[in-house]
Write a structure and sequence with these properties.
By secondary structure, this protein is α+β, with helices and mostly antiparallel strands. The chain has a domain of about 290 residues: Thrombin, subunit H, CATH 2.40.10.10. Helices cover about 20% and strands about 30% of the residues. It is built from seven helices and 24 strands. Strand 8 and strand 9 form a beta hairpin. The longest helix has 16 residues. It is globular and about 60 Å long.
Length: about 425
């Protein structure tokens, strides 16, 4: 199935840590609004910066402070753990290209017991442990664990396809948890018991630790990156990143395609209407872009409520995003915050035919209505733009999800980065 073509290329803290975080972020962070319901939303209000503001506090230090606060480590420890990200990504790529065939997936755990877990088919653990050193990653060996399991990434991908084909449109969302080996299905309240019965009748023939069926679904959440974007109606969004057409070199700003596309203007530029170019809201995309006549297209995003910006200097593709890794966001409603990748194979319409299982689902971070289209990032790297969040009953958390930025290529556009 071609949607999996690149699928494998991929806290309370001490008073001292909290004090550092507050010093870094100041009252702008404390003033952020937080989402209180458990439904999915469209967050479409981030855009690429038009009026540069000196990016202080330091963005990377702020992201590290969020990590320290979340998992209970010092700021210094957070900086150190985040500093391993490039080598961890290289490790996955090298294992996939030149490592043992028994390697099939990985995830990261930040915190006092930082760990990189490599998944191996049964019997393949020893050769993978040795390969970490033999392939030049000895410095990561002290933090690396190998888990032999039947439920590796490729196996769960295949099971996801089977479940999708079995349930069709009865599945409102689909995904899998690589940590537990579970395939997770949501469905409507009226379909909950029939779906559970159908799954139970076929589950033994499918490779997963279990297939978990819950009531729930997903919905969309409604120019320099992170600015309010209005369409003359009641449902604003957020701009994502400055983009450039790869065909014509025309620059503009991206947001979510589920937002309106006519008469768009920024909240601080009500006299300037954007020129809608093209959008796509299906398959692996939820993105549109607009020309920004008479505005400077800066390679920045707003990331604090006081207008502070950070420069975008790199792009992160879906294949290079690891389960458990930290990613941050800014939304018009919810503001700045960071969480961790829960899934990188989330399908927001389940067994329907509208979307592919390529969206990135997050945990331990809140988003809200009108955040749709806003930027997901870390340091100076662009990860993607916000689509929405899941909802469910019985105390099930809401999980935001976003579209990886590399899928903008379907519209012949690319996130603009600073040299």
């Amino acid at each position: 199935m071609d949607v999996f073509l690149q699928l494998r290329r991929r806290v309370m803290t001490s008073v001292r840590v909290l004090s550092v975080a507050l010093l870094l972020l100041g009252p702008a962070l404390a003033a952020q609004a937080h989402e209180t319901d458990s439904s999915t939303r469209d967050d479409s209000h981030s855009a690429a910066s038009r009026h540069a503001i000196d990016a202080s506090p330091d963005p990377e230090q702020a992201d590290a402070a969020q990590l320290a606060s979340s998992v209970g480590i010092t700021l210094e420890e957070a900086v150190t753990q985040l500093g391993r990200r490039p080598r961890v990504g290289d490790l996955r790529n090298v294992l996939e290209d030149r490592g043992p065939s028994s390697f099939d997936g990985m995830f990261i755990d930040y915190g006092p017991d930082y760990k990189i877990t490599l998944l191996a088919h049964p019997g393949g653990g020893t050769e993978i442990r040795q390969a970490v050193t033999d392939l030049g990653f000895g410095e990561l060996s002290p933090f690396t664990a190998v888990r032999e399991t039947l439920y590796t990434e490729t196996v769960l991908e295949n099971t996801l396809v089977q479940v999708s084909e079995l349930l069709g449109a009865q599945a409102t969302t689909l995904g899998f948890d690589i940590r537990t080996g579970e395939v997770i299905v949501t469905t409507s309240s009226s379909d909950l018991e029939p779906v559970r019965t159908l799954v139970a009748s076929r589950e033994k023939a499918m490779l997963a630790s279990r297939i978990l069926v819950r009531e729930g679904g997903a919905y969309d959440q409604h120019s320099y990156g992170g600015l309010g974007l209005f369409f003359g109606g009641p449902s604003p969004c957020t701009t994502g990143f400055t983009v450039r057409s790869t065909a014509s070199d025309v620059e503009g700003v991206a947001t979510a395609a589920h937002c309106a596309n006519e008469n768009a203007f920024l909240d601080h530029h009500s006299g300037v209407t954007f020129n809608y170019k093209v959008g796509k809201n299906r398959d692996s995309q939820d993105v549109q872009w607009h020309g920004t006549t008479d505005l400077d297209d800066l390679k920045q995003i707003k990331w604090l409520n006081d207008g502070t910006t950070r420069t975008i200097s790199a792009r992160k593709d879906r294949s290079d995003m690891e389960i458990g890794d930290q990613v941050c966001k800014y939304g018009r409603s919810s503001g700045y915050g960071c969480g961790f990748i829960r899934m990188r194979s989330f399908d927001p319409d389940g067994g329907g035919n509208e979307f592919n299982p390529t969206f990135i689902q997050m945990e331990d971070v809140d988003t809200n209505s009108t955040d749709s289209g806003g930027p997901w990032f870390h340091g100076g790297a662009a990860f993607g733009i916000h689509k929405g969040a899941t909802f469910g009953g019985g105390g099930v958390p809401s999980y935001p999800f976003f579209m990886a930025q590399n899928f903008m290529g379907a519209l012949d556009i690319q996130v603009q980065i600073s040299p």
